[in-house]
Design brief:
By secondary structure, this protein is mostly beta strands. The chain contains no helices and five strands. The relative contact order is 0.34. The structure holds zinc ion.
């Protein structure tokens, strides 16, 4: 399973590593992970399926 998320540092979409599902303060599903290129945290709104 690969999840694409926009990396602010790379300024392009990357395949998220170690994706973890969570919830925002608004109660919306969010997926957090690590950028494989620069190693910064990237996140994506919406649950991974
Ligand atoms: Zn990156």
């Amino acid at each position: 399973m690969t999840i694409e998320a926009y990396c602010m540092k790379c300024k392009e979409k990357q395949h998220m590593q170690n994706p973890v599902q969570g919830t925002t303060k608004n109660g919306k599903p969010i997926t957090k992970g690590t950028c494989p290129v620069c190693g910064s945290t990237i996140c994506r709104i919406g649950a991974a399926k």
